[in-house]
Structure formats: structure tokens, C-alpha cells
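We were asked to recover a plausible sequence for a given structure. The inputs and outputs are reproduced exactly as logged, with field labels preserved.

PROBLEM: sequence recovery
POSITIONS: 438
GIVEN STRUCTURE:
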């Protein structure tokens, strides 16, 4: 009876607040709902900084925060700053203690310090400063993840956030762009004449992100007990594979192929039947691919085997790779400054670009002084999961993150992405799982 009276007393207040909210939205600004939502999110983050980290992970796997509208308001930077502030308050209250990743800290310090100092020899300081900015974001996100989560249950929640984020990042733009009328096979064929990239600005980066999330979705299928949710994750895998096809990204296809082979090897070793959850969808997708899709791949292999210049993209990339190697040979120890290869590329081609190879991008910019710690960072992230895979409690989670990292390492052969945030999210998860296995 008391609860009923209390609810009745609150009811007029709720109605009055709703009317006031509606009037403010109508007569003051339509941004009022957004402002209230932002305030609610900030209050929630203040209560628990881990919710801010969840939000940053979602941003990393959708690239929403990097869209022009959001980036102009520095949404990602604001969310990251507020999460750090909330984490600092938790430390002051002595609720938590900030931890480092032991041996990894030294590698990050060496790599980060030389990246800063390389500005002295950089010709284009705008390129250098822009990449320093992204490097700091990547390092901060890594340590936020490392200090926010620790349990197996939390890692599974992160898996769900990652897969759902990249799935919605693909699914919503697909139907927004093409509409329900494109569901017939006849209307779907024109989609293969343009490259799809979801909410991520570049089809290759999009395909790389999707490929890295596929092993996580696969694990969610295995671990999910409810049939409806299991079917949801299965549909997510099917659509994400389909979106890689729509991106027409050879980088994405190579990454998926390596992840697929690694999955078969892992499941065969453990005699697991779940291999069908990834084999069957992949076979269905391959059968459904129209012949027009294979045109870019036929040009790619033709260029390699015969030296034909029909694939202009491939020809230009080969020029960039050879020129990047030449720049590295001439500046082997210190490089030419972080992200400054693009400046030197103008001497080799009339279309100067980044190296389209992460390893050569770091080698040309930072020399061996930056390349060695960077390679050790990649090795450490992969090798730290070796013991975790033997642990039956977290072996599946460890395998999924390792497979995602492996796909990213392959993509790095074709893209310059040293500070892409989705990679640093996976790296953070690798160190959490590795820490739990010790």
C-alpha cells in the first residue's frame, strides 16, 4: 500500500517533467534530448568509470566518434577525458589501484618516447603531430581497458559489445543506403559495383575491423545458451562475412582467410564440432558471390604473376613499398620522423601516399629504434596468450583474441594502421587474459 502511495505521489512529477521536457525541446532547441542524454551518460560514467571504457570500445569498433559531426565536437576525446577523470576519482577514493602491464610498459615507453623525439627530424610537423595524437589515444585506451576489466564474464561482455557494434555499424548503413527494395537478387547485383564500408570511412579499414571481430562472434555462438541469442550471433557472422564481400577488400579477404585457417587448426586439434559454425557460413557466402566480385582479385593475381599493369592500385602500392624500403635503407636507425614517409614518397611517385604497410610505415618513420619495440609489442600481445590457450577456463577467449590479432597483423601488411583503436582494444584484452592465466 505504501509503495502504491509513493508511486502515485511521483506520477504527477513524472508527467510534469515530461511536459516540461517536451516544451523545452519544441520551443528552445531540438538538441535538448541529446543534452539530457549526454548528461545522463556522464553521470553514469562518474558512478562507474568502466562504463566509459565500454563506450570507448564501442566508438573504436564503429568509428562513429571520428565522423565529421562528432569529431568537430571532439566526442571521443571528451569521453576519454571524462573516463580518465572518473578513474582518477576512484583511485583517490582508494577503490582501485592503477596497474601497468609489466614488461609491456618499457616497450611502450621506448616506442612512445622516440615517436615524440622524432618530431625533431620530421619535415612535416602536422603529420607528426596528428599521429602523436592518435598514438596517445591508443595508449590511453589500452591502459583503460587493462585497468577496467579482469574477469571472464567482463571479457565476454566486451566481446558482445564489439560484435554488436561492428554488426550495427554494417547492418544499419546497408539498409539505410540501399533500402528494402534491394533485397531481391536482381537488385543486389549492382551493390558489387561499389565498395561498402559501413560507418567506417574506408572499405579496407572496415574489412580489417570486421575480420578481427569474426572470432569473437564465433565464441559468442559457442558460449551462448539461449537459442534466440545463438541465432543472433550466427546471423551476425553471416552478415559480417557478407559485408567483407561487399567491401571488395582484398586485405579483408586475406585476413579472413588466415583467421579461417587458424580456426580450423585450433578446432581440429581439440576435435570440436563447432567448426561448422564458421565453415558452413563461409561456404554459403563463397557460393553466393557473383562473378563480378572476383574481377579485382583476378587483376591482383594477374599483376603478380605476369607483371601486367591492369591493376593500377596494385601497381601504385608496389611503387610505394619499394620506395618505403629505399627510404628505410637510407635512414635505417632513426628514420625520417613519425608518419613522414608521405613527404618523401613525392620523390618516387606523383601520387604521394602512406606506405600501405604498417611495418614499413614505422620503419621509415622511426627507423630500427622504433621498429624493434613495435614488433616486440606485436609479439608480446600474441605470445602472452600462449599459456592462456592451455587453460580450459579461458582457452576459447584467448584463442578468439589471438585469432583477431593474427588477422590484424596480416592486414598490417597492406595498410598503415599502427594506432587504429580496434587493434589496441584487442591488445588490451590479450594482456587481461594473459594476466588471468598466470
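RECOVERED SEQUENCE:
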Amino acid at each position: 500500500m505504501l509503495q502504491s502511495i509513493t508511486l502515485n505521489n511521483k506520477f504527477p512529477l513524472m508527467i510534469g517533467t515530461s511536459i516540461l521536457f517536451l516544451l523545452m525541446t519544441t520551443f528552445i532547441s531540438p538538441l535538448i534530448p541529446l543534452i539530457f542524454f549526454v548528461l545522463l551518460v556522464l553521470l553514469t560514467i562518474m558512478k562507474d568509470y568502466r562504463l566509459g571504457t565500454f563506450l570507448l570500445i564501442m566508438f573504436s569498433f564503429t568509428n562513429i566518434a571520428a565522423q565529421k559531426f562528432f569529431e568537430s565536437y571532439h566526442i571521443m576525446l571528451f569521453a576519454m577525458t571524462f573516463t580518465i577523470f572518473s578513474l582518477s576519482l576512484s583511485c583517490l577514493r582508494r577503490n582501485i589501484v592503477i596497474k601497468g602491464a609489466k614488461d609491456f610498459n618499457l616497450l611502450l615507453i621506448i616506442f612512445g618516447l622516440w615517436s615524440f623525439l622524432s618530431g625533431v627530424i620530421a619535415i612535416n610537423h602536422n603529420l607528426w603531430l596528428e599521429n602523436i595524437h592518435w598514438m596517445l589515444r591508443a595508449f590511453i585506451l589500452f591502459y583503460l581497458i587493462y585497468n577496467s576489466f579482469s574477469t571472464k564474464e567482463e571479457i565476454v561482455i566486451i566481446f558482445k559489445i564489439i560484435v554488436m557494434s561492428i554488426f550495427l555499424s554494417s547492418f544499419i548503413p546497408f539498409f539505410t543506403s540501399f533500402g528494402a527494395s534491394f533485397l531481391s537478387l536482381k537488385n543486389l547485383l549492382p551493390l558489387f559495383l561499389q565498395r561498402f564500408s559501413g560507418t567506417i570511412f574506408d572499405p579496407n579499414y572496415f574489412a580489417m575491423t570486421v575480420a578481427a571481430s569474426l572470432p569473437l562472434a564465433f565464441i559468442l555462438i559457442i558460449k551462448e545458451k539461449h537459442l534466440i541469442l545463438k541465432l543472433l550471433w550466427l546471423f551476425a557472422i553471416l552478415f559480417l562475412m557478407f559485408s567483407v564481400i561487399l567491401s571488395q577488400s582484398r586485405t579483408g579477404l586475406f585476413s579472413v582467410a588466415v583467421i579461417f585457417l587458424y580456426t580450423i587448426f585450433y578446432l581440429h586439434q581439440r576435435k570440436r564440432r563447432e567448426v561448422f559454425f564458421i565453415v558452413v557460413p563461409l561456404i554459403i557466402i563463397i557460393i553466393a558471390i557473383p562473378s563480378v566480385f572476383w574481377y579485382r582479385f583476378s587483376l591482383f593475381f594477374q599483376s603478380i604473376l605476369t607483371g601486367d599493369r591492369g591493376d593500377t592500385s596494385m601497381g601504385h602500392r608496389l611503387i610505394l613499398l619499394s620506395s618505403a624500403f629505399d627510404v628505410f635503407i637510407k635512414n635505417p636507425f632513426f628514420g625520417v620522423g613519425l608518419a613522414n614517409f608521405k613527404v618523401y614518397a613525392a620523390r618516387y611517385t606523383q601520387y604521394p601516399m602512406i606506405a600501405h604497410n604498417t611495418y614499413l610505415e614505422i620503419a621509415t618513420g622511426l627507423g630500427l629504434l622504433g621498429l624493434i619495440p613495435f614488433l616486440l609489442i606485436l609479439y608480446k600481445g600474441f605470445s602472452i596468450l600462449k599459456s592462456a590457450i592451455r587453460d580450459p577456463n579461458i582457452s576459447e577467449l584467448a584463442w578468439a583474441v589471438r585469432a583477431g590479432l593474427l588477422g590484424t597483423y596480416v592486414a598490417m601488411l597492406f595498410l598503415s594502421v599502427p594506432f587504429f583503436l580496434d587493434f589496441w582494444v584487442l591488445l588490451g584484452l590479450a594482456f587481461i587474459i594473459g594476466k588471468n592465466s598466470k
